Amino acid sequence: MTKIVDARVIVTCPGRNFVTLKLVTDDGLTGVGDATLNGRELAVASYLTEHVVPTLLGRDATRIEDTWQYLYKGAYWRRGPVTMSAIAAVDTALWDIAGKRAGLPVHQLLGGRSRDGVTVYGHANGADADELLTEVGRFLDEGYRAVRVQCGVPGLEKVYGVSSAAIYEPADAAVPSESVWSTEAYLDHVPEVFRRIRAEFGPGPKLLHDVHHRLTPIEAARLGKSLEPYALTWMEDPVPAELQEGFRLIRQHTTTPVAVGEVFNTIWDCEQLIREQLIDYVRATVVHAGGITHLRRIFDLAALHHVRSGSHGATDLSPVCMSAALQLDISIPNFGLQEYMPHSAETDAVFPHAYHYEGGYLHPGNEPGLGVDIDEELAAKYPYRPASLPVNRLQDGTLHSW
Ligand code: EZ4
Ligand code: CO
To answer: Model pTM?
Structure first.
């Protein structure tokens, strides 16, 4: 038995907001967990501080599964992104501590490496196809084997995923900014963009595209069909996934592979999608899906049904989440791809980490535990700043999915 003697909830904004839980044990070990929920950070911080931390002090840090069950079943109110991000932070920190106690990287506790490196995809975007082609070329020159491509749409002022900033950051205002969307303009434009990319770069690079929940199933089916000649690795979030059987319609019409899951928080969000083989990649990640313990449960179910992982890795997931995700990525049998958007230099300084990029792969490193920490003194220099994700409206003013 080794007791948790301190639990600190740290909110910091080194360029963007992050919430981190740091646990300390009576034998002097520390562990960190990411608890960041973009645009709703303080809800998770308060859930942790008010409702979770008091139950952790004095608890046996070696009982990872029991603590997960205690926080999940013990809340009575199950699931939901706030609850599951809080549980994830505790679970991740406990795995970090377990690794440090064993003197092993967490992936060694998960069965060891199933591959040599974690294949990642970068984000290429452009206001138009010419700009986008240059960006795709730049990623390929840097060794990326997979690239997500997002392009401006003629007639639309702002499009998800397209920005001229060096570090793309959608949470751009304290009160949500608004953008205007046209499904017709989008569906008309995208196939030509992919035709040009394949014409320029050939069949080699893996190409991905994020639809960001904006279509209906039949519209997504049309998009998937129109992109078949360009052999995408995946079409991401084609429709909102609350209705899991919506994906069956897409499946009936197209062989373009489907990825979904960045807003999922439990296995119940994807149980039918996986069991009925309605998707090809599940994109849940550690911080929003209940930590290493629960995400591994999701990936194990996925493995039974030919579904691979494709974990979310945007910049609102902290280096703590990335370190934890990489431990799973390197060890599970059914790894697919890992999203990777480098963080700002300020963020990297607050979260010193062992993982590193090399030639299209991320490597988790061999530090005991997760191989990441938070510099609390530096974190304190960056106070929280309110920031929200945008909302999206159709041209007639109707609120639409962003
Ligand atoms: O919009 O992480 O695939 N990545 C994405 C992200 C999400 C943000 C939301 O917080 O869709 O850019
Ligand atoms: Co996405």
So the answer is: 0.98
